[in-house]
Structures are given as C-alpha cells and as structure tokens.
C-alpha cells in the first residue's frame, strides 16, 4: 500500500528500475557523446586538408605552362645567334677573297636579309604565346645584329616595334580570354564542390530536425491517457518504424550522392588532366614542328643564297671566281649555317651538244648515277661509274662540298629522284624537295633540296619556258633527316617526355617515315603539319608521349578522400540512427512497463475495494449475529466476551471502510457530493458523537463557527464530517486527562484581512503571535495555528474571487502529546504513524490522516498542522464550498429558534474564548449574549442590563459566595419582570448526583453538560423557559420493523427468486410489498402523486434498467411539480425515495446512483443492517 | 426419541451443506424470514428457484447449441441465474455463474459449454440436497416436531 499511495511514486520507481537497467547503456552513451563531439572536429580538419590540397594541385598545374615558354625563348635566342654569326662569316669570307665584291654584294644579299627578316618575323610570330619579357629580350639581342647591317636598322626597328605591339596586344587578348575560360572552369568546379559540402551539411541538419521531430510526439504521448496509450503506442511504433526507414533511406541517398559525387570528381579531375596532357602534347608538337620548319627554312634560304652566290661569282664572272677548291672551302666554312645539310653540290646544265666540249674542259666524262645499288654507298667511287648514257642534256656536278666530293662529275639527271627534282626546280624557280630516300654513303634517310641557278635576272612573273631557258645550273643540298630532327629535338626542353615521328605524306596512301622510333604511348598522338617550302611535298610531324599516362593521383586522392568521408559520415549517421532506434525501442518498452505498472496499481486499488467490500459483507453477518447473541440470555462473562467481539468487529468494519475509502480515492473513483448542508449541524453531530469519549477522558470539547460562515454551504457533508471526526478522534486519542479540543471554522478571507478582524476568537489567535498561547478554552497552552495558515496557498492567493464559492478554514486544536519532530514529515503517509510505539500505545492504523488529506484535496483545499511535542497539535485545513441558493434549510429546530429570538443572556466565564464559544451557540438560537469574566463583575453588569432571560455560568467560574450575591440581585429584579432570569451552569462533566444537588440547591435552574450543541441547548432552554412538554431525546434506536411497518413499498426486479426474497424480507418487517418485474412496469406504477413510500429497484434489468427507470420517474416528478405548481417542499408523495438494489457495490457506486436520481442503495441480498441504514434516512425523519 | 434424532440429523445435514459450501449465510437469512405468518416461505422460494433455474438452464443449453452463439442472449440468462442463486444462497451455483459470465465476456464458446455443464452439475447438486433437506423437515413436521433453529457457529 505504502508504495502505491499514488501514481507518482510508482512511476518514479519504474523509472528508477529502468534507469538501473539501462545504466550501462547510459554510461556508454555518455562516452559516445564525447566521441560525437570529437568526430565532427576530425571531419572538419579532414575537409580543410582536402580542400587545401585540391587548391594547391590546381595552382601547380597552372605554373607548368609558363615553364615551357622559357624553353622556347632559349631556342629563339640561339637561332638569332646563328643568323648573326652566318652574316659575320660571309663578310669575313668576302673581305678575305675579294674586297670589291663586298659592296656589290649588298644589293644581292638583300634577299638574304629579307630571309633573315622573315626568320625574325616568323620567330616573332612564335613569340605570340610568350610573355612580353622574352619579347623584350629578343629586341635587345637583335641590336648588335642590326649594327652590322645599318641600312636595315630603321626598317627593322619599326617592324620589330610593330610586331612587338601586335604581340603585346594579342598576348593580352589571348591571356584575358584564357583567364576568363579558366576562371569559368574553376568557378563551376568549385561551385559543385561547395554544393557537395552543402549537401552533407544539409543532410546533417535535416537529420537533426528529423530526430527532434520524431521525439516530440513521443514526449506528448507521455501525457496521454492510459486507455488510449495502447492504441496510440501501436501507431507510434508503426510511425517510428516508418521514420526509421525514412531515415535509412535518406542516409542511403546521402551515401549514394556522396559516392556519385566522388566518382564525378574523379572523372572531372581526370578528364582535366587528360585534356591538359593533350594540350601540352599539342603545344610541344607544334613547337617542334615550327622549330623544325624554321630551321629547315633557314637552311633552305642558305642554300638559296649559295645558289645566288654561285650564279654571281661563277657565271657572272669570267673567268669564274669560283673553282672546286673555293667552293669546297666556302661551303665547308659555312657548313655551320646549314647544320642540317650533309652536303652541297653544284651541277651545271650541259646540253648534249656541249657534252664533248664540257668533258674536254673538265677532263672527265659525265658519269651516270648508280641507282641500282645505293645500298653500297660506302664504297662508291665515281671513277667506277659508267659514263652517262646519251641524253638531251646532262647536269654533271662540278662543285661539291668536301663531304660529298665523290659526286663530282656524276650526272644528276641520271638519278630518278634528282632528275625529277631538277626539272621541278628549274620550272618553279624555288627550292624543291625529293621524297625521302636513302642517301648515298650515309645510308640515312634524307631528302635532296635543289635550287635552279639562272644566268640572267628573271622577272618575277617569268614563264616556265623562260625559266628553263635561263637555267644554267642547279644547286643541290642533301638533308639528313634523322640527324636533322635529332639535333633539333636536343635543343628543346622536355625532349625526354616526347617522341616525335616525321612523315612524308605527299603520297597519302604510302606514308614514308623520315624519322622516328616505335616506342611511346601510341594511344595519344598529335599531328602537326610541316611546311618545308615546297608546295608539292607534304610533311607532317607526329608526336606522342614517351611514357604512358601516369596514375592520376591528383584526381584519385581528393575523390578518394570524399569517398572515405562519405562512408565515415554514413557510418556515423547509421550508428546514430541505430542508436535512436534502440532508444526509441527502450522508450516504448518503458512506456509499456509504465502502462503495466499503472494498470497494476489500478488493479490493486480495485482489488482492495473489492476485497474490503467482500470482507464487509460477512462482517456484517458476524456483527448482526453477535448482536442477536447478546440479546439472548448470557451470563456476565459470556456477555463480556460477546461485547468485546462486537466491539472488535466494529473496529474492523471501520478499518475496512477506511481502506475502502483509500482504495476508492486512489483509483480515482471517489467523487464528492454537492448538496447543501448546515455545517454547524454537522459539527454538532460530530461533537455529540465524540462527546462521550471526550468526557470520559475529561477533555473539554468546543466548537466555534465564525458568524461570517454562511448557514448553508454546498458540499459533501458526509466527507466533511469524516474529516472532522477523524481529526477530532485523533485529538481525543492523543490527549490525556486534561486540556481541550477546539474546533473552529472561519472564512479564509477573514484571516487574510488581518488588520480588521471582527471575529473575537480569531483576533485573539492572531494577537498571540506564532508560538503557543495560553488563553485557550481550557487554559492549557496550545499551539497556534496561525503559523500554519500562513503557508496555505489557498488563503494567501487573492485571486479566484468567485462569488459563488467560499473558502473555509477549519482548525482542530488539541493539547495532546504532540507529534515528534522527526515524524512530522510522514504524518500524511498512509499507514505511517508517528512511530511504531504509537500504534502500541494508542492503536489505530494511521490511514485516517492520509484519507483526510486526500479528501481535503478533493475539496480543492490544503491540510497542514503545527505541533509541539508535549504541548499539542493543531491541524488546519481549507476547503472550497459552494454557496447555497436558499439561505437556510428547513430544520426541525426552526420553531424552537423562533421562541428564543430576541432574548438576552449573560455569560459568566473566566476564559474569554470559552465565553465566545458559548456566545456563538447562543447566537445560533438568536439570543444576544454579553460576557463578563466573573460573578463579581456580573453583579455590576446585571444592574445595568435589563431584561436578562438567562445567565450562563461556567463551572470554573462558579463561586458559591459570589454567586449568591448575584442571585440575590437577580431575584430582586425577578419580581419586577414577568419572566424570571434563569441560571444555567455549564459543566464539562457532572454526575447525576451532582446535577440533582445543584438543581435542588435552588441556585441553578439547569446544568448543561458540555460540549454545547444546538439540540441540547434547545432542549434545556425549552424545559426551563417555556416549561412546555418535556421532549424526550429520542436517542433510542428504532427497530427496523418499526420503521417499515405499514409502509407501501414497490420492489422492481426481473428475477423472480430475488423478487420473492425481497418481498419476504420486507414483509417480515411489516411492509406492504408490491412486486413488478420490469422497469416499464415500475414506471407505470410510479406516477406522482405516489402511492408508495419507497421503491427498491434492481439495476440490471432487460429492456429498461434501474438507472433509466429512475431517471424517467424523476423526470415525470419534475414535470408534475412544475405543471401543478406544488410547493417546493419535498413531499413524499411527490418524491418517492428510490433505492438501488445491487450485488456489486464497486460497479454501481453510490455516486452513480445519485447521479440518476436515486436516493441510496442496498446491497443484494438483503441484510438487516444494510437495509436499516438505507431505509432509516427516509423514514426516520419522515 | 426418534424425533430428536431426526432433528439432530437435520441439523447435521444442514451443517454439512454449509461446510460443503453448497449453501451460504443467505440461506440462513432466508430461513429467518420464515415465520408463522409465512410458514412455507423457504420452500416456496426454493421451488420458485428450481422452476426458474430449470427454464434458464434449458434456454442456455439451446442458445449454446446454436451454430452462432449469441452471447448477448446468453449473458442475461446467466446473470439471472446468478442473481437468483445468490438470493437463495446457492453459493456454488453462484460461483459457477460468475465464472460462466467471465467466459461469456470473452466469447469463449467451448469454455462456456464447460461452464454450463459445471453450472448444471452444481445446480443438480443443490437441488438434490435441498429436496432432501425439505423431505427431512417435512418428516419432522409430520411427526409433530419443530424444525430446529440453525446453529450460527459454523
């Protein structure tokens, strides 16, 4: 019981249990929370690292490009040097061999200069992709060159400036464009990356929100009703599962997004790398092609220059200024100019007619070129060659560089390639190239460049015939392709990474490889075209990387990190989700346990109620039988035993009733009635009930109700009475031999307005301060309740000033043993008494106070106490009652009160409070009272006051001598007035002998035994004042047979046997019984004005049950009363008492019966005691 | 002498009925209601009970043998039986009825059948016993004796 005193401790205990159960989990969780804090930090760091890495990598790739530019600048610089030194060489040669020619040469060399200029221009064009600084270097390096050639200076500077301008402009433009594109790219990718992070963040936030949302309904659930909880729980469970799935889906989506993001990132970065690589390849390939082309062109120009040199000095002079020796020397010395040529030779055009002449001049025959076995180039000796066959014309080599001196006298026309070349060269007037073939001697693949030498100046628009005609010789130069390309490549940067192939693509179907290897990454190739100045021949360069594409770490690392992060985050979320699920599951388990515990608690209360009811029924039998036993002839001893047994039985019944009350309160089934009642009467009843015990112990019992308290209030009188009885009973139990018990009732408002208190009793209390005070009813000190009142919220709260509600403050003060300080905290706990010795000394279960407190709480009030061991305890409680609409109930005392109205009385009492109590009781009868403290002062008073109807004197103030004086005074007035002043003595206890003594002494008219109460007072006063018929205090208990005799009673029950039994039982007591078998039949019988004195109604009947039937009867009554205008008084013919008959008290409690208009209930089957209790209410007063 | 013996045996028999739990205090209350003005009260009531119960048990058997058992019909019958049996103090019948009703609430047909058998058994037992009791009483009355008041100390 103790543990289940209310639902809250149960809840707490369950929570405790569960906490214990999950304590391990909780500990883990607390650790987990630390981890949870650490993990995001770790991720923040990871994220920072990743992003910074990505940025750094991107930056470095930008730098690479600028590096390649520097290499190109170097190449350019070298070329210029070469050009410069060539000029230098030429000048030195001519200054050596022929000084005169030097000036004339100027004019001729202009084409060369132009060529140089062209070179520079083309180089400058190449510069377009370079930075301005390198361009600046270029112009600087050109200055010494220009110094040598002053005539070109102006021109060059201006053009260079122009070029520079152009260059700068273009550079800026292109750079800007590039910047723009790059920025765009960067923007897009970074935007996407940011989006990814945002996505993760969003996921996180969503998750958090989701979790908090899913928790919210769970919280709300706690407050919902127990009954609904089961159904709701299932719903919630489903919802939870759904939520869990939803969360998992979101998580899965997130992970998928993360993975796809990572893949996309990898692909994006990788793609960029590949693009960049390709771009690099393109750049390098183009660069190489350009360089090769330029180099070749330079070389070509030199050969051209040489041809002009030959035409000028060999053919233009007679005799020739050049012989084989000069030619050889010159070409040898200028060989560095043509690093690509393996040799230069000059062949003369000799027609067949002049062959013999020619052969004679030179002293050798024209030889035929051996085309058949070019493989054996090493040991080809011209002398071994056959003389050239007869042809239209020949072109025997007359001059040759030392390296190719073996071809002197060989007829170039006889070689297939050479012949074709010669024919084309002289027709076009430009340098022409052969297709690649194995060169004589070196066995390398090579091409031969041929220039025609004309004897006269040809106009630029000369026809082919004119050109052929003007041709006098041919200058040829052989190029060794592999060494040429290799030399070039060596000069360029990053030659290690790139592989270059050069092809002759003149014949599209049969590509001829001029240079190249088989190694390298074939998957990627870039082709750039080459222009060697011969429009009829096409060449191209194919570049590829030597190494295969390296593993793209820059793409793998960030995307890998993203992947890892995604999985880690996914793992964490998964962890969290599963934890949430576990927690939710636990929560549900706890809810289930809680519901079960609550259900168990209710079941327990129900069980208690049932059991106590079940015990009560046989106990009633036991008591009844004991009573009957006591009526039989028993000897003294047997009688004593029987009485003891009866007394114990009664105690047991009251205990069971208390337990039943407690159980009812706990299961929330107790409802308070709301009926108007006279509080003063209730208090009178209680005091009369307990006066016996109090008087036995010699304790003075006093009741005081403030005049502010209305006569009739609306509430539950029986429960109010129960509380008061309980408190007073306790007080009597714990007060020994002396002192008093004082019950006072005030309005709560009276206490609040402490400044202007009209009530004398209250004023005294407040004046006494907090601690105990001595001016009490009995004179023994008692604890002041004032200290307790202050803590009451209901008193202090000023709001809630409902006009139809009044707050009452009831105080029960005693001078008992008091409550030990350490026990004061648990005094309201059920079954807990102050200490175990208490129950031994005083008995009792300790349930009363707990029930009282609960009842007070049901009355929206509070209960409290102050107590001092050895001095006493004062219990106070407040309660809210309704105001009655009618000012007063009609009581049987009304008539008597009318008699006394307007009388005056004098109260002689040494104690102020006691006198006030007496005055209160007199005031209830309408008697005005004055107070004096002693008979002596009364003497002086009496003389002033006229028309005293009575003098009430307390026994404590009784003083025979003084009183005789007063009596004399009164007596002398007695003659004058029509009514003699009566003198009443108030005594706490007085034996019969004492009373008769007092009366016989003639001094006192009547002795009134305290506690004062209305009925007693009225009786006494009527006796002495009116001298009317003496009213017997009808205390003797009336027999049931007497009560029911001749009463017409209707029994309604569908069960024949029950009906018969009820009929028999009621008939036994002399009632006139009518039986009907259904609610409808009962309705037909019960038509107001009623012929029946009472009706016993079964509750459970087919068709119309007892409740329904009663309701209809009541409705009918109301209608009748309204229509016929019967006076409101409750005449029995207009309101038939209907009592429920039920076998189950728990199911059909009194409250339910009252609700539908029933007046009470009797348990089935009938038992004498129960029947009496139920019936007495109606027939006793009636 | 014979009369005294008969009275003794009646007392013993009644006592045994209480001890077996066939009857309870309510039967005593019933007996107390019987006086000169109403000499056959107990036997009247009990006969009523038998008639009523026979009818109810019949109805119950019929209702429970239906294909689809209508518990809304069965329950009032059992309630009726419970009420009347508790009125005359046939404790065991009453208890069986309480069990029966709880199964009615659960709508458990099989258990209801079992309960019906149980109730019938108890009913026939109490019927048998009470008939014997009345026979004994009649014998005593026929032989001019008084029916002894029941002892209360059982």
From TrEMBL, chain A:
Positions of post-translational 4-aspartylphosphate modification: 954, 1098
InterPro entries given in the database record: 2C_system_His_kinase (IPR050956), CHASE_dom (IPR006189), CHASE_sf (IPR042240), CheY-like_superfamily (IPR011006), HATPase_C_sf (IPR036890), HATPase_dom (IPR003594), His_kinase_dom (IPR005467), HisK_dim/P_dom (IPR003661)
Reactions this protein catalyses: ATP + protein L-histidine = ADP + protein N-phospho-L-histidine
Subcellular location(s) per record: Endoplasmic reticulum membrane
Domain CHASE, first and last residues per copy: 318-542
EC number: 2.7.13.3
Molecular function, one GO term: protein histidine kinase binding
Membrane protein topology class: Multi-pass membrane protein
GO biological process, one term: response to water deprivation
Start and end residues of each Response regulatory domain: 904-1025, 1048-1179
Domain Histidine kinase: 610-878
Top-level taxon in the UniProt lineage: Eukaryota
Listed transmembrane segments: 41-60, 250-267, 551-573
PROSITE patterns recorded: CHASE (PS50839), HIS_KIN (PS50109), RESPONSE_REGULATORY (PS50110)
GO cellular component: endoplasmic reticulum membrane; nucleus
Keyword tags: Developmental protein, Endoplasmic reticulum, Kinase, Membrane, Phosphoprotein, Transferase, Transmembrane, Transmembrane helix
Protein name (record): histidine kinase
From TrEMBL, chain B:
Extent of the signal sequence: none
Principal place of residence: cytoplasm
Pfam families in the record: Hpt (PF01627)
Transmembrane regions listed in the UniProt entry: none
Record's GO cellular component terms: cytosol; nucleus
Domain HPt span(s) in chain numbering: 38-143
UniProt name for this protein: Histidine-containing phosphotransfer protein
UniProt source species: Brassica carinata (Ethiopian mustard)
Lineage: Eukaryota, Viridiplantae, Streptophyta, Embryophyta, Tracheophyta
